[in-house]
Amino acid sequence: MRDMIIGQYYPGSSLIHRLDPRVKLLGTLLYLITVFMIHGPLSFAIVTAFLIAVTAVSHVPVKLMLKSLRGIMVILILTFIFSLFLTQGEVLVKMGPLHITKEGLSSGLYMLMRLSWLVIGASLMTLTTTPGRLTQGLESGLGFLTKFHVPVHETAMMMSIALRFIPILIEEETRIIQAQQSRGADFHTGNALQRVKKLTPILVPMFVSTIRRADELALAMDARCYRGGESRTSLHPLSFSRLDRQAWILLGIYTAAVVICFIFRV
Fold first, then answer.
1. What is the pLDDT of residues 127-144, one digit of tens each?
2. Distance between CA atoms of residues 174 and 73, nearest Å
3. Upper half-sphere CA count for residue 13 (Cβ side, 13 Å)
4. Which tens digits make up the pLDDT trace of 18-59?
5. b/e string for 107-145 if b means 16 or more Cβ within 10 A?
């Protein structure tokens, strides 16, 4: 959990930081879609170049971006192994009943890359956007759903609270682990089942702390007479600037290039 980057904000004044949150939300959605449209080296190069360019413009440290992959390292390894051994095709290496195929190696590498690029791209959005701006952009971008009686404001508020709670829970986890270790607890020895059982002194206090914080937040919002809905206004209304319009054009060019590569399977 300490390696989780999604939900954390990296302060800065880069071009990506100054973009309208609605542009970043739609851009992230388009990027996630195009990641799964990769079917060849050309589309892979376009998506990778786009991610590198956006990361460089955002001025977010590369080490911080790569840190987001630690939390899903097990998933990445298992995905690669399953694709490697369970995909039929031209056999490259035989290992008893198991065999590695050319198609399995290609599929495993592409899937490994897709998941890595997906996590890094999602992390980049939250690292360059405060939870408040993210909520405001989400509520404004999905405002048309209110006509269908969808609680857009409440949903956006819940997402904002969830994102704000991620760093708090990480700090809480670190504090509890240090407190338990100071009392002689050992979380690094024993088999898998024993290690899971040793997590009880961590999970129970975290669960209690999370419920307590949620209750305190609800009481604080109620004491301030918080009411969501159409009557609420924003201190800093969102508006598209010249920079946002230029970002729209670049996103359109990037998406069109990946779609063309997907059609021609390159």
1. 999 888 988 898 888 888
2. 20
3. 0
4. 999 999 999 999 999 999 898 889 999 999 999 999 999 999
5. bbebbbbbbbbbbbbbbbbbbbbbbbbbbbbbbbbbeee
In this prediction the pTM is: 0.81
| Residue 95 CB-half CA count within 13 A | 9
Q: Give me the residue label for tokens 């010249």.
A: 242
Which stretches within 142-199 are classed as H helix?
152-182, 192-198
Domain regions of the chain by residue span: 10-129+237-263, 146-223
71 vs 145, residue with greater confidence:
145
CA–CA gap between residue 88 and residue 111 (Å, rounded) = 16
Quickly count: other Cβ atoms within 10 Å of residue 84's Cβ.
22
